[in-house]
Amino acid sequence: MSDLIDDAPEGLNAPEFSVSEISGAIKRVIEGEFGHVRIRGEVGRVSRPRSGHIYLDLKDDRAVISGVVWKGVAARLTTLPEEGMEVVATGRVTTFAGQSKYQMVIDDIKPAGVGALMAMLEKRKALLEAEGLFAADRKKKLPYLPEIIGVVTSPSGAVIRDILHRLRDRFPRKVLIWPVAVQGAKCAPEVARAIAGFNALSPGGALPRPDLLIVARGGGSIEDLWGFNEEVVARAAAASEIPLISAVGHETDTTLIDHVADRRAPTPSAAAEMAVPVRLELLAWLEGQGGRLAQGLTGALAQRGQRLRDLSRALPRAETLVEGPRQRLDTWGDRLPVALERGVARRRVTLSECAGALQVSALRRMLTNEQRRLDHLAARLAPALERGVARKSEQLAGLRISTRAVEKDISYQKERLERAFSRITDAGARQVGELRTRLEATDRLRETLGYRATLARGYAVVRGDAGLVTSKAAAEQATGLEIEFADGRLKLGSGKPARGKSPRKPPEQGSLF
Fold first, then answer.
1. Local structure of residue 468 (DSSP, 8 states)
2. Where is this region: Disordered (predicted)?
């Protein structure tokens, strides 16, 4: 500034400067006086454009200073600034000539003590709780025995060794480790990417998808555990489709991921205990259940066996059950021959009565009557047809009808008459034939049922003075006997011939007609 004043033209009290000269002079003065400063204040407006830089305001109750965090510095920050957060910013004060203002280029920014961190944590917690990320109904149930367990932690710390050792003691399972930084600026984005990466794996792929996730870290200060309080980690845990156990810090340490996770474990070892049951306890329980099953089966079989024996004592003996039916069978067996003989005799009498009712003369008379009736109908048919034709001719004579139509109708009616006469003749012949067939069948039945057929089989009919002889005593008392064989009769003794009726000679075939 003094150089510019010295170079002023002589005679003028107020030197002239260009805008750029005065802006540059101010910039050099400010940067020379405030090249490295630490400012404590509250973060006001925060802007994060796509360029990656962060623009913010540092304020207290009386003044406001604009600040900027360049993209490269922002990527290295442990804690990103948020509105309302009390921080200590380290950097240099400079000017921005384009807007005639001064601002602070921030190289580092940290919360201004534990109180500020806790206030910011409570603010985030209230925000996430208002969105429902802490709700109990959205928490998923842990699998009872997962096949594969994914662990998000540092691969070189004691945490992973404790988890593997505890899993090996309780129930060995396959473990996939996703190495991440568990503190510092890289902690939050790496943990969020690990949770999303495990969820992106496809079940049954080359790298199988875990059935359960454990996010673990050992104890530390609130600054060391701050990466697990970041909003990006909490939202990644809430979006996880795989059940997740949070095991960050010791039992007294609480982070945002603990509220969002499906289950919180006080220590990493406790998370391993939550993940799998004790194999020996399961084997003991299985053996106990097997013993109970065997005991239950044995008791049930014994109880049912005793019940069966009790029921068997109440049942009668097999011999007692069959005594009654056996006696009834014997009685019916004794009665069966007599009943059969009686049934045969009864049916034989019925047959004889039916055979006696069959008279050849009655059948001949019936056939003659039917023949006469048919002849009478045939004799009446021709005059009736003639009268009908005459009547129709008279009606036709009174009408003026075409001769061709009349002739056609006469021809049609004549054909109908011939067909009707043919059907009547055929019906009469069929009826006569059926009657003849029935008569012949009845005559054959008579011959079959008559006693002459019996004589042909070697039997004989004995007649005495009073008729048929059916016993030895009657034969001894008779003065003379006549024996009829199939081929004739033979007289024995000097008695008179018996007056029994000789069987009527059956008519010869065809003698009825």
1. B
2. 491-513
What is the distance between the alpha carbons of residues 279 and 290, in angstroms, rounded to a whole number? 16
| Contact status, residue 455 vs residue 484, Cβ threshold 8 Å | yes
- For the entire predicted model, the pTM comes to 0.44
Distance (Å, whole) CA 385 – CA 416:
12
Q: How do residues 299-349 score in pLDDT, each as one tens digit?
A: 999 999 899 888 888 777 777 778 888 888 888 888 888 888 889 988 888
Return all residues near 123 (Cβ < 8 A) that are at least 6 apart: 82, 84
Please report, for residues 70, 92, 111, the alpha-carbon distance to residue 42 in angstroms, rounded to integers and kept in the order given.
19, 18, 10
Q: What is the CB neighbour count within 10 angstroms for residue 493?
A: 12
Report helix, strand or coil for 267: coil
- State the alpha helices, DSSP H only, in 221-278: 231-239, 256-260, 268-275
- Taking the C-alpha atoms of residue 433 and residue 372, their distance in angstroms, rounded to an integer, is 15
Other Cβ atoms less than 10 A from the Cβ of 412: the count is: 10
Q: Would you give the end-to-end CA distance of the chain in angstroms?
A: 171
Residues 118-169: tens digit of each pLDDT: 777 788 888 888 898 888 898 999 999 999 999 999 988 889 999 999 999 8
pLDDT in tens, 213-234: 999 998 877 777 888 888 899 9
- 3-state SS, residue 217: strand
Reading the block at residue 2, the tokens are 């003094």
